[in-house]
Amino acid sequence: MKNMIHTQYELVKQSREILLDYCAGISPKDFTAENSTFGRGSIRNLLVHTGNTYEFWIGEQALQKVKVPTPYHAIPAVNELRLFYKDIDMLMEEFLNRYLPDFSKAITVRKKGETENIRPLQLFTHVITHEFHHKGQVLSLSRHLGYIPVDTDIIR
């Protein structure tokens, strides 16, 4: 299972890199343009929100690292976003090294003010599926702005 989970996260990172390369071709104005019909407002905000989810569930909850979520405005462009995700990748590496030996053993997390026991596999699945959900929104928003979305599927 250990190799499979690492391989799966590598696939997530490869897909993310394709998305970030695509976003590098979006004008800075469009990258941060607020659109109220999309949940987080802009392409940048959606991508930072996705990273915030890793920060919260993996960094704060699983690894007990106290961290203020990265604010949207702290990431003005794709270059900073790449650095942000390198930090996320380091969190994930630490998480996988700590919990992969027994990915089914529950850990205690705080959720909506309550404690709950969640398996590391659930946390891993939650953050990567959350990223893919918002990746779809990023591509839809870019289409709305007049760009032609790139194929970011795992199987292209």
UniProtKB/TrEMBL annotation:
GO MF annotations, alphabetized: metal ion binding
Recorded coiled-coil stretches: none
Acetylation is among the record's keywords: no
Positions contributing to a divalent metal cation binding: H49, H130, H134
Residues in the signal sequence: none
A Pfam family it matches: DinB
Presence of the UniProt keyword Lyase in the record: no
Protein name in the entry: Damage-inducible protein DinB
InterPro entries with a match to the protein in the record: DinB, DinB/YfiT-like
Organism in which the protein naturally occurs: Sinomicrobium pectinilyticum
